[in-house]
Amino acid sequence: MNGIPAEFEQFHWMVDMVQNVDLGLIVVDKEFNVHLWNGFMTHHSGKQAHDVMGKSLFEIFPEIDSSWFKAKSKPVFELGTRSFVIWRQRPYLFHCRNVRPITQQSHFMYQNVTLNPMRSTTGEIKSMFLAVEDVTAEALAETLNK
């Protein structure tokens, strides 16, 4: 390589991928405080990372029913299993604007969200990451064709 240690270069790549992937990535702890907010979430929610870091998810998005979401997250933290929120159950978890020009028939982004456990080096689950997928085009195609 160019004199830069391989581990540093790989870390830089990982950070770049997390920030630029076409998927929302959020890390929250067991108290639901935000520890990671990627570029997708900034772009779609209009909320900057420095404004959400360390704050409660329920403060940032008061439309989320906290008791429902805590129950949905329970198997993630307690059993280490994934949990899912699909658009057919609930059109979105995070009220984000729809920014895709082809699918402007919707005023919000339809989402599929996967809640994933994050294990520490000791195997303990102290955090989870949420992967937020924009499924607006698919949702509108399905609902308009009914």
UniProtKB/TrEMBL annotation:
SUPFAM superfamilies according to UniProt: PYP-like sensor domain (PAS domain)
Pfam families assigned to the protein according to its UniProt record, in alphabetical order: PAS (PF00989)
UniProt-listed GO biological process terms: regulation of DNA-templated transcription
Coiled coil: none
InterPro entries in the cross-refs: PAS (IPR000014), PAS-like_dom_sf (IPR035965), PAS_fold (IPR013767)
Residue span, PAS domain: 12-78
Entry-linked NCBIfam families: sensory_box
Protein name as annotated: PAS domain S-box protein
Organism name: Aliivibrio finisterrensis
